[in-house]
Amino acid sequence: MHELSIAVNIAEIVEEEMQKHDASQLNEIVIEIGKMSGVVAELLEFALKESFDNHAVSKANIVFNHIEGKAECLQCHTLQTVENLYNPCINCGSFNLSIIEGKELKIKSLLIE
Q1: Is the CA virtual torsion 2, 102, 80, 75 positive or negative?
Q2: Where are the domains positioned within the chain?
Q3: Angle, CA 107 vertex, CA 81 and CA 62 arms, to 5°
Q4: How far apart are CA 70 and CA 55, in angstroms?
Q5: Rounded to an integer, what distance in angstroms lies between the CA atom of residue 113 and that of residue 26?
Q6: What is residue 22's three-state secondary structure?
Q7: Does residue 1 surpass a pLDDT of 70?
Q8: Is 0.70 topped by the overall pTM?
Q9: Which CATH number fits domain 3-68+102-112: 3.40.50.300, 3.20.20.190, 3.30.2320.50, 3.40.50.970?
Q10: Cα–chain-centroid distance for residue 12?
Q11: What are the tens digits of pLDDT across the range 23-82?
């Protein structure tokens, strides 16, 4: 479960930002997660809540913004929505697609006090 190592990194980032802004409480964290990132949002939330009992991140409201997969066909340059890395082009059938969006995993915002 690589979500645990991602949760550790997120907790470290949250801690750094809270120290930087002299904050004592994290109310909300918004995480953008691409549908093609390979990260399961439910497992990541579980890791954040259960692995950090007394950490600010365990008490915060966690919001996930899911980013759709988008790709450009390198054959015919058609832009399209994709569900996985192995989708063929909807226009020409080529499997030579370049992923433009959907692999993201980033902290979009923190609501701290």
Answers
A1: negative
A2: 3-68+102-112
A3: 95
A4: 35
A5: 7
A6: coil
A7: no
A8: yes
A9: 3.30.2320.50
A10: 16
A11: 989 999 999 999 999 999 999 999 988 887 778 888 889 999 999 999 999 999 999 999
